[in-house]
Design goal:
The structure is a homodimer of 587-residue chains. With 587 residues, chain A is of the alpha+beta class. Among the domains of chain A are: 188 residues, BirA Bifunctional Protein, domain 2, CATH 3.30.930.10; 137 residues, Anticodon-binding domain (Rossmann fold, 3-Layer(aba) Sandwich); 70 residues, Translation Initiation Factor IF3 (2-Layer Sandwich), CATH 3.30.110. In chain A, α3 packs antiparallel against α6. The radius of gyration of chain A is 26 Å and the shape is globular. Chain A starts with 10 loop residues before the first helix and ends with a strand. β5 of chain A pairs antiparallel with β5 of chain B, so a sheet runs across the interface.
Chain lengths: 587, 587
């Protein structure tokens, strides 16, 4: 199922030739490309054709929409092709985002509009994590986004870390403000200000809250999802009576993130502790999950901070302990953001586009259906009305004659009902403007895990063809799968499980084949120069860590929780080392 | 179940007397009160006692926490009492917010921290509406909150309406910005900027999206939930090919809001059209739902705007129609915000505190449980682990001797499992620091619809006492309800339905007894002076509407959709009138 090598001019081009060819003012691909870092500037050529190829076909219909589909041949393919991943990973990434309609640039430089198909991925992340946060005893709430500038200054390393990235409101209601307001880059300061009012005694602890919110960091080099001026995240904030409890909480939450990454997103992250240099501004310890992207760069996909008493001392967040003594609370904070969507794209995507793990299709719809069934008893009606966006299965009906059509459409319609009732998120693409071949490519670009193909012969045989998104061509197809409900549903669920497992397995293999153990700085340099991750014993200083960064571009991603046994020697200094560190270039 | 008339000094006072008595720096009730409008300034006295009464007891525990509860008599009552609603409605409102721990002030004047118990109400609103939006074909997405200032200026009445309320970012990343950025007060401008890029032909229409977001309006007079500098809302934005479709959409969405208000929040809103003067800045027509609060002031609880082509002309949002002609799209936008939480408090609350309609307890938990049952088959474990906040039923066990205790606790524990399995959100308050009487008052303050009381005699009789929150004292109690699972569950569900219906019925009666038909301006003045709503035929000018506002303080809340039949005469001018308008003072 390789993408067409030649990009056909899109049909929208035929309709608005001058606009498309001359200026392409509204085309996304070039807009995305102009923000690519200079390293990829050599990828040029085909500007005008990419200008339309990457975007317009998903929107623009063929000009002959009145023509019945029975006259159409399945030869015209989906033109929303992307730069091959192996040619230019960054260009590929931006093309996939444009072609799969995940996001677009906002009018203010560095901002991003998250389009429905991309937002549905974020909703899937939210729905899973929201349950886990509640199960682990956290309550959602909401803190204001405007923070007095003086708050940021209270914790010394915090202001140092964040002040270069702040957006400041200086005018409100037409007047210059007496004190500038920071648009939150993170909420530890305002959280502590409020915690001082809610925490009196040890009985008020632990205090465990979370908020889903937008945050702003004035980033100079932005990239959709991965680093944007404004992004969406959740930030958990907790206060505890003891250092041990805070440490347990920080570790628990990085474990929640790790499980999500493995089990839902099929991303085999490495969990560990950040080096001092990479620790969050204001934290005592930062735990992280680090994911290897398709270009082998590391993506910090989630962090959990043990804040110690840094903020509680700065803000005076105290409680009276069981002996009547005033103590500062011990705190944590932890966050996952829309960056994770970028991680999913860059872990699983291929030259055909996005590839979504089946479990990332939103959970919510299942839940809602469950609710509707129980409470309203109007199962079918609501099932069909709910506006599902991320599908696990797309059904593409195929017919040539009007005679064939009705049989195929009837079969597709009952299949759809069957799958919805089985809790499978299904889309029927029965539009008459597109050929089956075009639809195959389109839904592959969108990353839908399974495709069911049904033609007249399949209807006659009471069977269907099931194609996996993760295995191109014939090897990924199951022919002659019976339409008998229990057989088909069992087959699809089993295939969805296979795909989920296969994506994780593939990512683990890729990761493991790209992490190399090193025992000298020279070895590290060679490994990093190959674009791989280096793992080696480390007990050197912060300044030596800085030297590695300057000389190789790699940073310590983490000291992984999983450590080799036995005595080790720091590859940099030759001194004894307690642990290995992982070095890599990163986003 | 009247609140204790005498406020006992709180026990926190005994522990930190100097701090509490002298400065009360962290107490919420006085902080809330200092923002009350001057009209209520005559309510003073008892400052120091309210300073502690309204808040601290929910947090502070009794000093003798080591004392076993068997030694405790059920006489000490919950001290988190509030100003009687009839004495000072505004003070009552702020006291309920503080005592039920719904919200708190943020450090920046006019901002609000939404605490977990208040945020759970917002989540219940979100979860219901989110389903309805998807059922009606809308997709969630996210637009950036920073809008170039020039965008706001493009639509003439929009800039006039919003420019006095804008918060402006002028510094980013340490540098003065070339163009000021508006922190979104609403998103029509940026939405249109993006729509121009996504809409080419009629086949791209309708385009129907929604976002859940924070918005900022620099309000001078704020009030928690009702009007805050930053608030949370959803804003739907749609584009259509015809004026008729846009009108249908705007009407559909105000109907979604109306149904939510009636069926979930038990608020009998009046839906109708805004007058020209009260129409949204930039809209052709604004539809509204208007709710009567307990003080008979009107609360605009949701709006839906038919924007016509105002924004599409300002931004050039065009499509090519079926005849190949370029046309401007027809648009709508519609919103409900955290203000609705204030509407729930002010519609149903009483002197004992908050009163929550049973259906406002979050839907999500049911859904999640349903999911967990289906997918993980570990029903009980997860049920108990999920952190439910808004309860439909609270169980208060009562015992005097250690002997009695174990039997009562066992009975309570199996009751809890039973109710959770039946999908009823239940809390067991078995803490030993509080007396049953204190707990009764505390959970009434929190507005939990039903309370189950179980003592040793009830255990022996295999029965419980069930108390309704909405009917004080003995008339609200059902004695001797069998613990037999099917009987008890049926009884509770039936009672929850009764309460839901009763709250709505009571609010309808209150509303209808406070709307008076008027046939002259003199009559209107008299009705408004009584604090009621006036309804009368109206076809007068905008300036006469302005005169009514200046002379009476009342505005046209809406021209209700439900209109009397027959010919009418404008009560102001004596000219023929096509419709009646409703006038009222409002929030």
């Amino acid at each position: 199922m390789a993408m067409a090598a030649v990009r056909l001019p899109s049909l929208s081009l035929l309709r608005y030739p001058s606009k498309s060819l001359l200026s392409c003012p509204l085309s996304l691909a070039p807009r995305l490309r102009h923000l690519r870092p200079r390293a990829s500037a050599h990828i040029s050529g085909g500007g005008a054709s990419r200008c339309i190829s990457a975007r317009s076909l998903a929107k623009e219909e063929v000009s002959s929409s009145a023509t019945p589909s029975t006259d159409r041949k399945p030869s015209s393919s989906y033109e929303g092709s992307v730069t091959p991943r192996s040619v230019d990973f960054n260009a590929w990434y931006l093309d996939v985002i444009a072609s799969a309609e995940l996001a677009d640039y906002g009018p203010v430089r560095g901002t991003m509009v998250i389009r429905p198909y991309g937002y549905a991925i974020w909703e899937a992340i939210q729905e899973y994590l929201n349950v886990k946060f509640k199960e682990t005893g956290h309550s959602n709430m909401y803190f204001p986004q405007f923070i007095p500038y003086s708050f940021i200054e209270k914790e010394a390393s915090h202001v140092e870390g964040f002040s270069p990235e702040l957006a400041l409101v200086t005018i409100g209601g037409g007047k210059e403000l007496e004190e500038k307001l920071v648009v939150r880059p993170t909420s530890e300061t305002i959280v502590n200000h409020m915690f001082t009012q809610w925490i009196q005694s040890y009985r008020d602890l632990p205090l465990m809250v979370n908020q889903w919110a937008n945050v702003t960091r004035w980033e100079m080099r932005t990239k959709p999802f991965v680093r944007t001026l404004e992004f969406l995240w959740q930030e958990g904030h907790t206060a505890h009576a003891t250092a041990e409890e805070a440490e347990t909480e920080a570790l628990q939450m990085i474990d929640v993130y790790k499980k999500f990454a493995y089990e839902q997103a099929a991303i085999p992250v490495i969990a560990g502790r950040k080096s001092r240099a990479e620790t969050f501004a204001g934290a005592a310890r930062t735990y992280t999950i680090e994911a290897m992207m398709g270009d082998r760069k590391a993506l910090q996909a989630g962090t959990s901070h043990n804040l110690g008493q840094n903020f509680s001392r700065a803000f005076g967040t105290q409680f009276t302990d069981e002996n009547g003594q005033r103590q500062h609370v011990w705190q944590t904070s932890w966050a996952v953001s829309t960056r994770f969507v970028g991680g999913i794209i860059m872990t699983h995507g291929d030259d055909a586009g996005l590839m979504l793990p089946p479990r990332i299709a939103p959970i919510q719809v299942d839940l809602l259906l469950g609710f509707v069934i129980v409470i309203q008893s109007v199962y079918e009606v609501i099932l069909i009305n709910v506006n599902i966006i991320n599908y696990q299965v797309v059904i593409v009906p195929i017919w040539k004659t009007a005679n064939d059509k009705s049989g195929v459409i009837d079969a597709v319609s009952s299949l759809k009902d069957l799958l919805l009732k089985a809790g499978i998120k299904v889309k029927v693409d029965d539009s008459e403007q597109r050929t089956p071949g075009w639809k195959f490519n389109f839904w592959e670009m969108k990353g839908v895990p399974l495709r069911i193909e049904i033609g007249p012969r399949d209807v006659a045989n009471k069977s269907v063809v099931v194609s996996r998104r993760d295995i191109p061509g014939k090897p990924g197809k199951d022919f002659g799968i019976s339409m008998e409900p229990s057989v088909l549903v069992a087959h699809l669920k089993s295939r969805l499980d296979d795909i989920q497992a296969s994506l994780l397995h593939r990512a683990i293999s890729f990761r493991d084949s790209n992490i190399v153990d090193v025992n000298s700085y020279e070895e590290l340099k060679a490994v990093i120069a190959q674009g791989k991750w280096a793992r080696g014993p480390w007990s050197a200083s912060d300044s030596e860590e800085q030297k590695v960064k300057e000389e190789t571009g790699a940073t310590i991603r983490c000291f992984p929780f999983e450590q080799p046994l036995g005595k080790m020697t720091c590859f940099m200094t030759g001194n004894p080392a307690d642990e290995v560190a992982i070095f890599a270039k990163s986003y």
